[in-house]
């Protein structure tokens, strides 16, 4: 953001905990250290104060566990506490804490406040600016500031606020009264997953007076071995636990890849392109031989103009026209038809498989790896591979025609040509084995660059707040250098090939020239026209054979992109998209919204521990059920299993008596509404985010915006319903994104089941209660599963 007016004074180092926690795709420990030197005493105190002890105990690899991209393997509360732990560990002077308590339950929030933020916490001697909707903690603040519409409307100590009888005093009074009322949902049943919290004693012995050491560049390697210099750590390269490396094929490319590529080009259009290339080379050869005949017919000088000039010139022009036609047909079929069809074929198949891939695939695959295939590999298939493939066919046809003419005119050339061709082949095979693997390494080393670029952009605010730009630039340079190593090796191999091809080509030129000179002494020497043609072809042999070897190698090295895309076209898909006909329920299913879990067990992917262990419960139609438990207990996993985003390992899940494992994913998910914990907004306009299908009127859109308490904000934006929403909803706060998702759900009432996963965790208590009232009214006939930290 840019300061338009006024002054801001800041002294000392700043640490920042963002409202939306940002985590590196690294180990949990690396996320907390964030480039700082490891201090065991401080580290353990921070872990305990941020209530992470139990979480680390549950994780197989402890703090060496890979958190995944954007912390995908963690719950919202765990991500918030790791972000807070990173902020505390920074040993800064000023701490900016943007709503760090909204994603955790009340017990953990109290623990964090008492042990970290409050007057008895680790940060007690530091300046702390806490943005929060948690009114109960306001009493322990040195000063309260109330903000409305971007302006400070009230400020003062807690006692002064109570004496002023202002808006803040009213909010505190209202919140206190609401806490004493019954649950807004009049909850019939409460599902308790795990409410055990181990209280931690505040470690007052940990001091924050130590100066922070210079940050060191921590690559994603979890094993550290101490060096002689106590102020630094030497990185021991070892594969991090749980880290999934990108798959790389070995050896030559399978012929099935070539067959798939050729089929994707189309049999008819590919045949036409090949015929045009062959015709082009044949006509080009005939043109050269026609020039030889033309020159031979004019060996005797004459004062008069050649009477056959028009004849020779006409035939030559006709051959040139035919060559142009063949080249035109070749270009149209190769690039406008085959290349486009092939690129579309591979892109669409890979895109379809990615959309249908199970969540476990995204848990273990960085976005940079996927992006690399859709950008670089698809670009090669679309742009480079058609050029090198057609170039190979043209060069092969041209080289064959040259050898045919030279061998026909000077048969002894075959005695030298065949051994030299074997030498060419051996050089090409040796080069190909190297260049093909280098190409694969180049492709794989690009993925971390894409991943880090996106990761850095997402966390640029946090990186700048911690003044860690230099470390991230250095790490990015390291990844780029690693990719450039492969590029340099490729260039060096190219130079190696060029020297050897030129040397062999010179031997071939010498051979042809010697044979032509020897033939001149024969009883029937070649005419001057043919000698000229042979020497012309001899000079082009080096270039032709050199290009043939190069383009043949380029075809195999670039076909690696097809190989990588085909790998993704074979990804395992989720369950069937549509319901099998004999299992299809009635069109108005579910009619009641009854949900039954019978001994359900779930894990996020094979090889991991169970998250849900024998869960049994029944939800009657139109019941409003609260699901509570400690962060990481498995509350959100219940909703994932209901949508079949993760498949159960055992047990049954029934909706209105129908086993959902027999229902197609499209039919199932279209019948359940959800307001997720991480609310998603898409780049575009407000109207499209609310109503993607465009089936609702403006009056309906404004109605749901008013009910979700967003109407005033949307009206203040330029364009109203046509106001721009940035990527990921970055121009909206967390609470506003949640409200927009609520409005979206209120528009789509075709289901009988609503899941609310911390749906109002980022809004203030007053708005929360108003929204709960709206939900109780608008979704009265719905069965509602509510995952919430605030039970009142």
UniProtKB/TrEMBL annotation:
Its main location: membrane. It is a multi-pass membrane protein. This is Uncharacterized protein. Pfam families: ABC_membrane, ABC_tran. The lineage of its organism: Eukaryota, Fungi, Dikarya, Basidiomycota, Pucciniomycotina. Residues 272-557 form the ABC transmembrane type-1 domain. GO terms for molecular function: ABC-type transporter activity; ATP binding; ATP hydrolysis activity. One of its GO terms (cellular component) is fungal-type vacuole membrane.
């Amino acid at each position: 953001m840019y300061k338009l007016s006024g002054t801001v004074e800041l002294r000392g180092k700043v640490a920042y905990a963002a409202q939306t926690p940002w985590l590196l795709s690294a180990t949990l420990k690396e996320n907390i250290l964030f480039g700082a030197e490891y201090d065991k005493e401080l580290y353990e105190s921070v872990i305990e104060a941020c209530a992470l002890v139990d979480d680390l105990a549950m994780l197989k690899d402890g703090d060496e566990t890979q958190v995944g991209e954007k912390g995908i393997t963690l719950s919202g509360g765990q991500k918030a506490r790791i972000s807070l732990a990173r902020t505390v560990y920074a040993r800064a002077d000023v701490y900016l804490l943007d709503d760090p308590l909204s994603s955790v339950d009340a017990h953990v929030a109290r623990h964090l406040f008492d042990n970290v933020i409050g007057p008895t916490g680790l940060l007690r001697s530091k300046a702390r600016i806490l943005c929060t909707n948690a009114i109960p903690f306001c009493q322990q603040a040195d000063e309260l500031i109330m903000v409305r519409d971007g302006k400070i409307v009230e400020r003062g100590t807690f006692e002064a606020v109570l004496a002023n009888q202002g808006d803040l005093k009213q909010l505190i009074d209202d919140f206190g009264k609401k806490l004493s009322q019954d649950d807004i949902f009049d909850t019939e049943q409460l599902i308790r997953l795990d409410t055990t919290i181990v209280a931690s004693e505040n470690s007052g012995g940990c001091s924050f007076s130590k100066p922070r050491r210079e940050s060191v560049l921590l690559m994603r390697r979890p094993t550290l071995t101490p060096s002689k210099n106590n102020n630094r750590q030497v990185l021991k390269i070892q594969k991090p636990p749980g880290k999934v490396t990108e798959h790389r094929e070995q050896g030559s490319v399978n012929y099935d890849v070539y067959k798939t590529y050729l089929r994707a080009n189309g049999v008819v259009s590919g045949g036409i392109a090949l015929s045009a290339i062959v015709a082009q080379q044949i006509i080009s050869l005939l043109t050269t031989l026609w020039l030889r005949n033309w020159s031979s017919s004019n060996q005797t000088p004459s004062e008069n103009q050649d009477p056959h000039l028009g004849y020779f010139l006409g035939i030559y022009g006709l051959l040139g026209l035919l060559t142009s036609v063949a080249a035109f047909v070749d270009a149209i079929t190769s690039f406008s038809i085959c290349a486009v069809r092939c690129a579309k074929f591979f892109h669409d198949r890979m895109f379809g498989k990615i959309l249908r891939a199970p969540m476990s695939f995204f848990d273990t695959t960085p976005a940079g790896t996927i992006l690399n295939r859709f950008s670089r590999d698809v670009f090669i298939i679309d742009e480079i591979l058609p050029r090198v493939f057609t170039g190979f066919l043209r060069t092969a046809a041209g080289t064959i025609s040259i050898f045919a003419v030279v061998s026909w005119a000077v048969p002894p050339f075959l005695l030298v040509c065949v051994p030299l061709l074997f030498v060419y082949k051996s050089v090409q095979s040796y080069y190909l084995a190297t260049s093909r693997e280098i190409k694969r390494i180049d492709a794989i080393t690009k993925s971390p660059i894409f991943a880090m670029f996106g990761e850095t952009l997402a966390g640029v605010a946090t990186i700048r707040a911690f003044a860690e730009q230099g470390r991230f630039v250095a790490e990015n340079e390291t990844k780029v250098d690693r990719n450039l190593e492969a590029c340099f090796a490729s260039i060096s191999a190219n130079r190696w090939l060029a020297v050897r091809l030129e040397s062999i080509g010179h031997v071939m030129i010498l051979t042809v020239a010697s044979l032509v000179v020897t033939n001149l002494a024969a009883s029937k020497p070649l005419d001057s026209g043919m000698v000229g043609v042979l020497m012309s072809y001899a000079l082009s042999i080096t270039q032709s054979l050199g290009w043939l070897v190069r383009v043949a190698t380029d075809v195999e090295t670039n076909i690696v992109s097809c190989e990588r895309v085909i790998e993704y076209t074979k990804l395992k898909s989720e369950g069937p998209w549509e319901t099998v006909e004999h299992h299809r329920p009635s069109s108005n299913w579910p009619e009641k919204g009854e949900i039954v879990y019978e001994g359900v067990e779930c894990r996020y992917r094979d090889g991991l521990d169970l998250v849900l262990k024998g869960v049994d419960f029944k939800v009657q139609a139109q019941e409003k059920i609260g699901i509570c438990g400690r962060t990481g207990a498995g509350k959100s996993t219940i909703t994932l299993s209901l949508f079949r985003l993760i498949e159960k390992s055992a047990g049954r899940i029934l909706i209105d008596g129908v086993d959902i494992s027999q229902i197609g994913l499209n039919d199932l998910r279209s019948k359940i509404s959800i307001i997720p914990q991480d609310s998603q907004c898409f780049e575009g306009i407000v109207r499209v985010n609310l109503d993607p299908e465009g089936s609702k009127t403006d009056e309906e859109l404004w109605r749901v915006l008013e009910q979700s308490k967003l109407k005033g904000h949307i009206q203040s934006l330029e364009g109203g319903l046509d106001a721009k929403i940035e990527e990921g909803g970055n121009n909206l706060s967390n609470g506003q994104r949640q409200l927009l998702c609520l409005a979206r759900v209120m528009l789509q009432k075709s289901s009988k089941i609503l899941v609310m996963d911390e749906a109002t965790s980022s809004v203030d208590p007053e708005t929360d209660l108003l929204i709960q009232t709206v939900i109780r009214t608008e979704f009265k006939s719905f069965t509602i599963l509510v995952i919430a930290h605030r039970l009142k």
